[in-house]
From TrEMBL:
Belongs to the metallophosphoesterase superfamily. YfcE family. SUPFAM superfamilies: Metallo-dependent phosphatases (SSF56300). Residues 1-189 form the Calcineurin-like phosphoesterase domain. It comes from Heliorestis convoluta. This is Metallophosphoesterase family protein. It holds the Pfam family Metallophos_2. It comes from the Bacteria.
Length: 203
């Protein structure tokens, strides 16, 4: 199974379209939450329309949870609202992959910024690899026999997961990156245990 993993669109429709152009060959696109624009409502409905049309698998982000708690379904198309409201806080693929916005310990608000926080999150749930967003930066932590280390993922360079290790991977942000002027996404080939970071321009 080949996954294309994106997060934190925040109303940037052009960036989302650019990302999808890089993901035409994957088997499943996964979105790790946060549709709304931080500053205004631009791009909200169009983003949902695209995600729905592309049959994207999604989990809820902290901004999504806020919108769903404050607004009524009548403000956008009912089918889109139902699609949006159906997103879980976290999702799994068997016992191997955990999809979440924040992290295993706090699905909406966690920020896994160092080895200490990564260690706590590795012990919060059982998984082989967790993909998350929320921080708007690309990160990777590897857990081996109780020890955690940070891995630097380079754009376009394949990183292969070790069978005896566990991983927490931050996929960055498509629409509002904080580690580059270019948005990011992650490709994960489950068959080969290969991860590749891709970057795209922000329009």
């Amino acid at each position: 199974m080949r996954y294309g993993i994106i997060s934190d669109i925040h109303g940037n429709v052009n960036a989302l379209k650019n990302a999808l152009n890089l993901l035409r060959d994957v088997d499943q696109i996964v979105f790790l939450g946060d549709v709304p624009n931080h500053r205004n409502g631009k791009g909200f409905q169009e983003t949902l329309e695209i995600l729905h049309r592309e049959n994207v698998k999604a989990v809820r982000g902290n901004c999504d949870a806020y919108v769903l708690s404050q607004y009524r379904s009548g403000e956008i198309d009912e089918s889109l609202w139902n699609f949006y409201a159906s997103w879980p806080i976290e999702d799994r693929k068997d016992n191997e992959i955990l999809w979440v916005h924040g992290g295993p310990r706090d699905p909406l608000g966690e920020r896994i910024v160092d080895e200490e926080r990564a260690w706590k999150n590795f012990h919060a749930q059982d998984f082989r690899i967790c993909f998350h967003g929320h921080q708007h930066t690309v990160t990777c932590f590897e857990y081996e026999q109780g020890d955690v280390r940070s891995i630097s993922l380079q754009e376009g360079v394949a990183f292969y997961l070790h069978d005896h290790c566990r991983y927490i991977v931050g996929v960055g942000s498509v629409g509002d990156p904080r580690d580059s002027s270019r948005g990011s996404l992650v490709l994960y080939n489950q068959s080969t245990s290969e991860i590749v970071v891709k970057r795209l321009p922000i329009d």
